[in-house]
Specification:
heterodimer, A: about 325 residues, alpha/beta, Elongation Factor Tu (Ef-tu), domain 3, Rossmann fold, 3 domains, 7-stranded antiparallel β-sheet, 7 helices, B: alpha/beta, Rubrerythrin, domain 2, 5-stranded mixed β-sheet
């Protein structure tokens, strides 16, 4: 997972100050970073599939941890350099061992389901990182898991790791048609009680999740970890009433509700500004939000009593929020 | 009178069919058979289905469901139709076998019967009395209030001793 933040990222709450202990190139564009406590203490353990937010320069980005989460002497992340992105990954790629960084405590948003009979992991490209964490944990605990890994020839990160870790439980695909064929077969042969986890570009995840729905998989068996969210359209202008002061804030097309609130002097907690992290949630008092985030569940979106103000907008003129 | 926020199952709207690869239905009694059969007819013709009917809920019904789910793959849906106690007993079995709520469709045909769990002797008493009334436990003969607490794991109502305080006073005297 790689969520890029805008400039002037907020200070991390209760962050860890860590030292960059090791840098390893995985592919020409993917590099692994290992962080340790400067005093050599053990770091907080984490749930498989967790991520940390790394402060680098004036950017704060979220990256999946690749370990199993127990006996955490170090945190390791793998970062794909995105040259036309927000600049966070490029800044990280410039760091050398010995650098000091501010790193959030691990946050869990992609945990394995404890009651699952089998874990079906599906990853594309750099989306392999949380799956490494899941697979390592499943191996340590003796849980049943298998991995379907799609990557471009020559660009598969952590191939040696996953081959050694998974053995027979790994299926690699290096082109779209063989992946789709393998996906179709896998979706139709999982024992009842299997949960599916997918991480990769949005289009890849959409393909997997819709194929699963067609094969009769109910939503609660499907778990996805978004990264590199697609650009949203600028949206229609609207105005919002602030319930506590009665003030009205205009939100032009192309400006987010969060930005409009900030510009009018209101402080709203935020982190990713991409509708992923859940930090900027606001209670809705009236009106119908146009939900464009990846954080709220379908039920929460239907309830219309909260809004992720970094990406979501209003469907009607009467939006009122508790601020 | 059952409080609004209790665990007692409430008859809701009849669930709509979902996208699935196959349906496996277990029904109990005539009413259950009819409900299940009518519901399965709403499915698209192309969807595979199997319906096994039992007169009453017993070990054979549980064994049939267990055998089918042991080899089932994700994409199956389970339809359970009949009296509340039978339907919820098999629902608990389906969840233990790995099913999730979205995969289990319940069609309850009210017959007024319920099963009451005795926390004193752990036995189960079948009764036609409604929630809130008293039933005599078939295991230990204690008088149990049928409480508005329904266990979805065991498909029973919790019973508690109606005269526990009086008995305690008698014992002390």
């Amino acid at each position: 997972m790689t969520a890029t933040a805008e400039a002037s990222a907020p200070a991390l709450h209760n962050a860890l100050e860590l030292v960059l202990a090791d840098v390893t190139d995985r592919t020409p564009s993917i590099r692994s970073f290992t962080f340790r406590d400067p005093a050599g203490n053990e770091l907080p353990p984490y749930v498989p599939g967790s991520h940390i937010i790394v402060h680098s320069g004036d950017k704060a980005n979220a990256y999946s941890l690749t370990g199993s989460g127990v006996l955490t002497a170090e945190y390791t992340i793998s970062v794909l350099r995105v040259d036309n992105g927000g600049g966070g990954s490029a800044a990280l790629h410039q760091l050398a061992p010995g650098a000091r960084l501010s790193v959030s405590r691990p946050r869990s948003a992609f945990a394995p389901v404890a009651t699952a009979r089998h874990h079906l992991l599906i990853a594309a490209g750099i989306g392999i990182t949380p799956m490494l964490s899941h697979m390592r944990a499943a191996t340590e605990w003796g849980h049943s898991a298998s991995l379907l890994y799609a990557y471009r020839q020559g660009e598969g990160a952590h191939l040696d790791d996953v081959r050694e870790l998974c053995g027979e439980r790994l299926l690699e695909c290096t082109d779209r048609s063989s992946f789709l064929a393998a996906l179709g077969v896998r979706l139709g042969e999982q024992p009842l009680g299997t949960h599916l986890y997918v991480c990769g570009p949005q289009g890849f995840m959409d393909t997997v999740l819709s194929a699963a729905a067609v094969a009769g998989w109910p939503p609660s068996r499907l778990h996805s970890e978004p990264f590199g969210t697609a650009d949203l359209d600028p949206g229609q202008p609207f105005s919002v009433t602030l319930g506590r002061s009665g003030a009205v804030v205009d939100v032009p097309s192309g400006t987010s509700l969060l930005k409009a609130l900030e510009d009018s002097g209101h402080k709203v907690p935020f982190m990713c500004r991409q509708g992923v992290c859940g930090e900027c949630i606001l209670p809705v008092l009236r009106g119908t939000p146009e939900h464009r985030d990846l954080y709220l569940s379908e039920a929460e979106k239907t309830a219309n009593n909260s809004i992720m103000c970094c990406v979501s907008r209003s469907r009607d003129a009467g939006l009122e929020i508790d601020l | 009178m059952i409080p609004r926020h209790s665990s007692v199952p409430r008859p809701g709207a009849v669930p709509s069919p979902a996208r699935a690869r196959e349906y496996f239905a277990v029904s109990f009694g005539n009413e259950g058979f009819k409900e299940s059969d009518a519901w399965l007819r709403r499915l698209d013709h192309s969807i595979q289905r199997q319906h096994v009917a039992f007169r009453t809920g017993d070990d054979a019904a549980a064994a049939a469901l267990q055998a089918r789910l042991a080899s089932a793959v994700v994409g199956i849906r389970v339809v359970l139709a009949g009296p509340e106690a039978d339907v919820y007993t098999l629902r608990a079995l389906a969840l233990r076998m790995g099913a999730v709520d979205e995969e289990v469709f319940l069609l309850v045909t009210p017959d007024g019967s319920r099963r009451v769990h005795c926390p004193h002797c752990q036995s189960t008493t079948v009764t036609d009395r409604p929630v809130g009334e008293v039933v005599v436990c078939t295991g230990c003969q204690k008088s149990l209030v049928i409480y508005h607490h329904f266990s979805r794991r065991t498909a029973t109502y919790l019973g508690y001793m109606v005269d526990a305080e009086e008995r305690a006073k008698e014992d002390a005297a």
